[in-house]
Amino acid sequence: MSHAIQERPVSVAPRRGPLSHARLPRWTPAAVAAFSIAAGIGIGLAAGWHSKVQWGMLAALLFVLTTYAVTTKVEGARQAKDRVATSLVWVCFVLAVVPLLSLAWVTISKGMAVLDVYFLTHSMNGVLDTEAGGGVYHALLGTIEQVGIATLIAAPIGLLTAVYLVEYGGGKLAQAVTFFVDVMTGIPSIVAGLFILATWNLMLGFGPSGFAGAMALAILMMPVVVRSTEEMLKLVPNELREASLALGIPKWRTILKVVLPTAIGGITTGVMLAVARITGETAPVLLLVFGTKLINPNPFEGAQSSLPLYVYEQYAVGTDASVARAWAAALVLIAFVMILNLVARGIARWKAPKTGR
Amino acid sequence: MAKRIDVSGLSAFYGAHKAIDDISMTVEPRSVTAFIGPSGCGKSTFLRTLNRMHEVTPGGRVEGKVMLDDENLYGSNVDPVAVRRTVGMVFQRPNPFPTMSIFDNVAAGLRLNGKYKKSALNDIVEKSLKGANLWNEVKDRLNKPGSGLSGGQQQRLCIARAIAVEPDVLLMDEPCSALDPISTLAIEDLIGELKERFTIVIVTHNMQQAARVSDRTAFFNLAAVGQPGKLIELDDTERIFSNPSVQATEDYISGRFG
Ligand SMILES: Nc1ncnc2c1ncn2[C@@H]1O[C@H](COP(=O)(O)OP(=O)(O)OP(=O)(O)O)[C@@H](O)[C@H]1O
Ligand SMILES: [Mg+2]
């Protein structure tokens, strides 16, 4: 910072120009945080508060206030505001991460109890719900099939709808489509389930099946795919479309070979979010897929199970063994979504525009 | 094969706004025509009407005729895609395809049109890159992404991409505004070579460049902000720069422009 000054033997202390001012040492935020947490715990203990949430709130409040006080004293008012904003961001970050970590922690610690290879490879066939034993294989298989079919239905339709809206739309039809997509976003999952129940099962007379559930899930998934894909396509610069058109490349090839590849990373992420959303749906599955203890690999005929439904059923039984199974299945569910997500990110990164030199 | 462009009574609109008004001119084959004029006078707009790119802009509309040899580009049976294959374009800002490698960028026009021989592709790419004076800089990293090049290199990549499809006419919208003097000279030399085979139209703000590269020069102007741009005069470059027939042209060229 001040090499030039320090090299001069005459100078005793670095002279302070109009552009510099007293700075707090770098470790200040950490020290203030440690102090606030300690004070939060101390006051909490002393006052006899039971809820740890109150301790945390107090610590967060102290952190912001102390930061402000210390900085105003040493660095001045503008720097104080800057630091307060920074510390607020940190507090919000912690607030957001705490529930996430505790959720992961609880699920993992409770779920690991019965989670093993046996659990993953066996169904509940011949096991009483109240007893220990059995597994989640039938539910995992059901979830994979139902979500897979729902994605196969919803992703292409959603993608094409978004392409229409962004690349071709503009008239009355596009407005109407946008309106209905917005309405669809707000459909509660139970309503989607009831709709399929009323048409597919009651009117057309089909029995419960994984496919019926998948159709309801597709209804829930479609608007999410349309929305996210639309946003991603809008981010593709117009210059790229023009560059391609100016080479005499037809519009549909431009979309296919230039626009979609440029946006593929974001589109994949959007589809994955939609998949994650429907993977956890219980209500339509309960109505349409019905649930079973047996392995039914055929999604088009007969009741199936699914992970969220399994968790719901096992938790409702309420014995130690069934609750442990519920947690383990919840862990499997989270892991399933997580793995899908990582795979999608991998694909997105592999396909995304490369900027390396 | 170079072609003559014959424009008559051409006006272009953005929605209700008329950007250029009633332009008529002839662009000779195997020559370079430069467009000069103040910012916003409609040079880019006019250029884009010559390969039907103007109508790609939402609200873009054209009135009048553009004859390419003896075919009206705005005739009712004309396919804009076919027009753009014949009349290539280089844009003001470099816009390589970010998902494609350098090689793929140059090959894009041929590949995506589906009209190429695999064996010839390597040669065409090399020839085009050499033509755009970029070959030596990128020959070792043809598989690296095109967006990893510098701005000037990207622009030369775009020129290579445009000439790879061998158009009859090449439209260039300030192709050198992002280039250093050496690359600029290279592009100007390139333009000199290309005019043996193509009809070239170039928009430039650089008077010396217009004087150096062009055979004929067109001066555009607009009466006031918000008014449509008009063609003031088109003449041999020498005449425009030595003895123009309109006072406004002389004022603009000599920098006395209000
Ligand atoms: N996409 C657009 N929508 C609406 N108006 C536009 C659009 N593009 C250009 N215009 C208007 O058309 C007129 C001509 O613009 P144009 O880009 O052709 O000017 P130019 O001569 O190329 O200027 P420059 O030398 O700065 O590139 C301007 O008044 C501009 O505001
Ligand atoms: Mg322009």
UniProtKB/TrEMBL annotation, chain A:
> How the protein sits in the membrane?
Multi-pass membrane protein
Keyword Transmembrane helix listed? The answer is yes
> Domain named ABC transmembrane type-1: which ranges?
140-344
Family stated for the protein in its record: Belongs to the binding-protein-dependent transport system permease family. CysTW subfamily.
Task: Provide the alphabetized UniProt keywords.
Answer: Cell membrane, Membrane, Phosphate transport, Transmembrane, Transmembrane helix, Transport
SUPFAM superfamilies linked to this entry: MetI-like
Q: What's the name of its gene? A: pstA
Native source organism of the sequence: Streptomyces narbonensis
Reply yes or no: does the keyword Ribonucleoprotein apply.
Answer: no
Cellular localisation: Cell membrane
Function field: Part of the binding-protein-dependent transport system for phosphate; probably responsible for the translocation of the substrate across the membrane.
* Family annotation (PROSITE patterns): ABC_TM1
What is the recorded name of this protein? Phosphate transport system permease protein PstA
Q: Which residues cross the membrane?
A: 30-49, 55-72, 84-108, 147-166, 178-200, 206-226, 258-278, 326-348
TrEMBL record, chain B:
Q: Which InterPro entries match?
A: AAA+_ATPase, ABC_transporter-like_ATP-bd, ABC_transporter-like_CS, P-loop_NTPase, PstB-like
Per UniProt, residues of the ABC transporter domain are 5-247
Keyword annotations for this protein?
ATP-binding, Nucleotide-binding, Translocase, Transport
| Gene Ontology MF: a single term | ATP binding
The answer to whether keyword ATP-binding applies is yes
Domain of life assignment: Bacteria
State one Pfam family annotation.
ABC_tran
Transmembrane regions = none
Question: Amino-acid biosynthesis: is it a keyword of this entry?
Answer: no
Looking up NCBIfam families in the UniProt record yields: 3a0107s01c2 (TIGR00972)
Protein name, entry field: Phosphate ABC transporter ATP-binding protein PstB
**Native source species:** Streptomyces narbonensis
From the broadest rank down, the organism's phylogenetic lineage runs: Bacteria, Bacillati, Actinomycetota, Actinomycetes, Kitasatosporales
